[in-house]
Each structure stands twice: as C-alpha cells, then as structure tokens.
Amino acid sequence: QLQLAESGGGLVQPGGSLRLSCTASGSTLHYYAIAWFRQTPGKEREGVSCISHSGGVTHYVDSVKGRFTISRDNAKNTVYLQMSSLKPEDTAVYYCAKVYPGRCADYDFFGSWGQGTQVTVSS
Fold this sequence. Notes:
The chain has strands spanning about 5, 10, 20-25, 35-40, 45-50, 60, 70-75, 80-85, 90-100, 110, 115-120.
C-alpha cells in the first residue's frame, strides 16, 4: 500500500524559498495524481497544488500561482513543491495526498494523511 511522507519544511524569512518533498514507499508513485494541501490551526485543510500521474497537468490555487511550482520525479518516487517569494500567510503544515484521476482541480483526495511538514514564514 502506498504511503506518503512529507519533508523539507522549516523557518524562512518573507521572500525566501523552500522545497518540499513528498516521498512514496510501499508502492509506485507514478500511478497516482498527487496534491499538496496545507492547514493552519482553526482552518480547514486547503488544496494548494496538484500534479497528474504523468506530470503533464498541474493545478495551483490562485494564492500561490506564480510563486509555487509542483513537479515530480517518478524514478525517485517523489513529488516536489518549490515555494518561492514566501509570505507569512503561507505559514501552515503542508501535507501531500493521492488524488483521484482527473480530479486535480477539485483536490479530490483519497487515502490517509501523513504527519505533514511545518512551514513557518516569519522575520
């Protein structure tokens, strides 16, 4: 069974960059569309970006367009989220999850959540 683990979070100043990784184990990642989500205390988890199983289709929520880039390396069983020009409002715990085929824009996920990785943007 595919399990996902997030890494790469940390503390960064506004305007800085981070690259998050979502690494799969237990199965092959290339069968699945993968999305990144984020959550802050007291708020619902929101979809941030999604990539199709082939990498040919990507989707971004408006608040991160032009700043975040999602990519995947199926040979390494990993999906990345390159985050640039970070803002304090990007502060959250970031999670990755599997998404139903063709459902990236809806962030229609399935499966269990990992522990996430904390991103804190602060001066």
